[in-house]
Amino acid sequence: MRTQVAIIGAGPAGLLLGALLHRAGIAAVIVEQRSPAYVLGRIRAGVLEQTTVALLEQAGVAERLHREGLRHDGIELAFDGRLHRIDFQALTGKHVTVYGQTEVTRDLMEARAAAGLPPVYEAQGVSLHDFDGTRPVVRYRKNGSLREIECDFIAGCDGFHGASRASVPAPALTTHEKVYPFGWLGVLADAPPARDELVYAQHARGFALCSQRSATRSRYYVQCALDDRVEQWSDARFWDELRRRLPEEVAQRVTVAPALEKSIAPLRSFVAEPMRFGRLFLAGDAAHIVPPTGAKGLNLAASDVGTLAQALHEFYADKRSAGIDAYSQRCLSRVWKAERFSWWFTSLMHRLPDQGEFGARLQQAELDYLVGSRAAAGALAENYVGLPLPPSSLRGDEQRELHHDASSATASA
Ligand code: APR
Ligand code: PHB
Question: What's the pLDDT tens digit per position in 339-382?
Fold first, then answer.
């Protein structure tokens, strides 16, 4: 088989890249190791920045998002038994949209199938070859037979444990990593959310988060020990611990219901540099991981592939390589700002095992400053709603519009 771009991974990054390339008339084949059901079974944060929504619109998959997505103009911080709202609209002129990542993935999968371009699912032993030349090749096994894709470019959208980054010669790659000394225990339940907006709670017993998927389905998290196992957390224990970490006015609004899904995830910050190796481009979790506190994972994956799609369009349409040559630097500039914000928000809101009394007092001081200073709250807000995309990721009209939004919001803040 021959195509222009071979995409490895049919998660949000791979599927969105495929959709953007299709709209640009660039042929791509997506190769995925798991089944569609397995991919859809992943429960992940769904807080979309406006720039992510704009990319999904550009990809032609935003109709249900606009119908079912929940617009949020702020979040609430909870500490010392009280709630403090961070007003995104007043501070930045922007908002976020709450729409589960599973639904983003479903919309992208359905669009790709409708275009007659379904990914190759359950591909085994995917391997990457000759991406340091001009005729890279992807090989994989399907139904027992070896298959080969000749292409111009390979997009490594295969996540943290994928084959793409692992195929890069070690001397060519620099990685940066921080593993946090705690995890998140998450529960999905068919229960109405406790508050209209997300609540991030800092408490001596540990962090808690009240999130949502719809008006009838909630997603909750509590910080837990790294060596905790799901079996140690009955539903009753989870609901009790969650409510102990929330202000009374929130705790009493939590509706207890059976856990539809319950899992523990570790927290990690990770960046691989650079994000391009010849004809291989890394995007999304294949290149970087953020702790979920700032809800940046999906948004960074979207901005990576928006930048890559624009660069490939310039290469094929204008015969210009400036975009693909600048890809890594453009993405890493935004990635590192999101890494910083996610680390900062995680360090502020969680009980750090080795923080001591001095560290606890610093957290208290920062929270007091945050809710007492428009400048401090504005810094949180503009990072949470998303910093501007690299200059090339959106069409000219969207760039001008977002720039206008950002400049007018700054003027009014
Ligand atoms: N061959 C083919 N496919 C692979 C391979 C491989 N060797 N290894 C992994 N994959 C597939 C996975 O099965 C998965 O479906 O690549 C896909 C990668 O998807 P994600 O891990 O979701 O990563 P990404 O698309 O970058 O999306 C990032 O997902 O994990 C969350 O928090 C993260 O919200 C962020 C988003
Ligand atoms: C979620 O809804 O799963 C979610 C929301 C916001 C976060 C993390 C997770 O910061």
Answer: 999 999 999 999 998 899 999 999 999 999 999 999 999 999 99
Q: How many domains does the chain have?
A: 1
* Alpha helix stretches (DSSP H) within 24-116: 36-40, 50-58, 63-68, 88-92, 101-114
Residue 121 annotated to the active site? no
Tokens for 120, please give them.
């190759």
- Domain assignment present for 171: yes
63 domain-assigned: yes
Handedness of CA 82, 87, 90, 91 (dihedral sign): positive
411 in helix, strand or coil? helix
Could you read off the pLDDT of 30-86 as tens digits, one per residue? Answer: 999 999 999 998 878 889 999 999 999 999 999 999 999 999 999 999 999 999 999
Q: Residue 142 is which amino acid?
A: K
Residue nearest to atom 5 of ligand 2 (CA): 45
- 72 bridge partner residues: 96
User: Could you give the C-alpha distances from 236 to 187, 258, 396, in angstroms and in order?
Assistant: 12, 9, 52
| Cβ–Cβ under 8 Å, residues 372 and 79 | no
Check the CA dihedral 344-345-351-353 and report its sign. negative
The CATH number of the domain where 17 resides is what? 3.50.50.60
SS3 140: strand
Calculate the alpha carbon distances from 277 to 128, 133, 282, 358 in Å. 12, 10, 8, 45
Domain membership flag for residue 356 = no
Range of the domain at 172: 5-68+99-178+268-349+391-402
Pick the catalytic residue from 22, 262, 296, 313.
Answer: 296
| Distance between CA atoms of residues 75 and 85, nearest Å | 6
Which two three-digit tokens encode residue 74?
């702020």
362 belongs to a structural domain = no
Known catalytic membership, residue 72: yes
Alpha-carbon gap, residue 33 to 158, rounded angstroms: 9
- Ligand 1 binding pocket, CB closer than 6 Å: 8-14, 31-34, 39, 44, 101, 123, 126, 157-159, 161-163, 284-285, 297-298, 301
CB-based contact 226:266 (threshold 8 Å): yes
- Ligand that lies nearest to the alpha carbon of residue 47, given by its number in the listed order: 2
